[in-house]
Amino acid sequence: MNKKTLVDLLKLSHVKRWAIIDSVKEQSVADHTFRVGVLAVYLIDKLKLQLDKGKVVLDIMLHDVSEAETGDIPSTHKKTNQDLQPSNSAEYCLLRLADTIEANIFLQRYVLRPHRVTRFLDSKILFLQKELSNLCGIPMEEISEAIDNLIATGRNYD
After folding, report:
1. Of 64, 84, 116, 144, whose CA is between 20 and 30 Å from 123?
2. Domain housing 133
3. pLDDT tens string 18-75
4. Is 113 helix (H, G, I), strand (E, B) or coil?
5. What would the DSSP string read from start to end of 35-100?
6. pTM of the shown model
7. What is the CATH number of the domain that holds 65?
8. Nearest Cα residue to 55 out of 68, 44, 66
């Protein structure tokens, strides 16, 4: 890791997430990143995925590092419509899935009118569940059950 990346990662605790959405609780990008890592490791263990946890966690640590410079801009400006594009690996699919689950949990819990945003996130979660099922050969029902339990836990005990 170079010095610029180190400095950018350390800045993430000061970068506000959800800049354009009114929420009753603030969240930093660093908080979001930590929570995505926790959710991903939980899914790796719960689904018995044969993935390198270290690589997944490192990828998660770096996935929003550009926001140290840009702030948390709407996802439509970050990438060109990659939200519902196929992943190139199970690790990347899991990162995207944990990222989307974390956003869903936060929005359901702390945003006054989350329905329009969470409907999109629900469809993205379903898309990524199917993709993870195909990439890892795990039955869709098993993934759905793990995710439903994870979301319910997050909404109730966050």
Report:
1. 64
2. 3-157
3. 877 878 888 988 999 999 999 999 999 999 999 999 999 999 998 888 888 877 766 6
4. coil
5. HHHHHHHHHHHHTT----HHHHHHHHHHTTTTHHHH-S--HHHHSSS-TTSPPSSHHHHHHHHHHH
6. 0.87
7. 1.10.3210.10
8. 44
